[in-house]
Structures are given as structure tokens and as C-alpha cells.
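Q:
Got a chain?
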Amino acid sequence: MTGPMRLAAVAGLLLIVLSGCQTADTGVVRTNEPSKGDVTAFGDAFDGLKTVSDVEYYASDQAVAEAKNQFRAENYGNAGALFYKATQLAPNDGGAWMGLAACSDRIRRFDLSDHAYRQAFRLVGGTPEYYNNVGYSYLLRGKLQDARSSFLKAYELAPNDPTVANNLKLLSSSVKNLER
């Protein structure tokens, strides 16, 4: 069988297969225009289906999870890079901005942490975690009055939070060390 004949045979077989798919007797008339009675038409098939408005958030989950692991391992540069990636994937993820701010504090890039804290506040508001982290940032900078103010805001919102209580103790010991 030559090339043109083989091509013609394949085309004919394809037409038979395709026409067989279209002639199945299901009792449903199929047209290009969806009708209200046609249950297979796409026009009404997705009524009530909710779509996710910010799919990007889910794309950042893996970066945030790995960033938290790196942070716990005290690999602050790696964690910061991953949190930064997460903020690029999902700019409305307040947790990613908080993580980026904390990493930036640890590597003493306070210019970056200030920016990240502003973004986080816009997204998560004045939560105890936010004020606690900002207070710790001020503590690292040696701005003890600002640290105290932020820690007290966190304490007012969450008086039983052990992290806030520990940071207030840390601040107190920092002040005592300065007085010596």
C-alpha cells in the first residue's frame, strides 16, 4: 500500500469511527445550542458550582510549609526566600508576609521586615501574633520602648499566650542588663 492509499484508508477508518460515536441512539437530541431539556448541555450543567476566587493561595501552601521547616531549623535565609516566594504566589496570604517579616528580622534586614509587617497588618490586622512579632522586631533593634508597647498590645489581646509572656520577660531582662 502506497503513502496516499494508506492515508486514504486511515482517513476512511477515522470517519467510520467518528460517525459511529455520533449515531448512538440515546433518545437525546444533541445540537450545538444547549437547551434547557438537554441534561448533557454545558449551559446548565455547572449551575451552583462555586469557583475559588484566589486559587493562588493554594499554590503558596507548599512554599509556606517548607519555609516554616527552614525557620524551625534556624535557616532564616532559606526560610525568607521561601516566604518571599509564597508572597509572590499569593500576595494576600498574611501568614506568608508574617513569616517573611520574622525571617527578615532574624537576618537583621529591618527594612524588609518593616515592609512585610505593613503588608501583614493590612491582611491580618492587629492580632496578638502580629503585635508580638513586631515587638520582637523592635527588641532585636534595641528599641525597647517600642517593643514594650507592642508586647503590651499583644498581652491585652491574649493575656494567656505563653509566647507573649515569655517575650515580656525577655524584655524585662534586657532592660535589667542595660541598667547594669
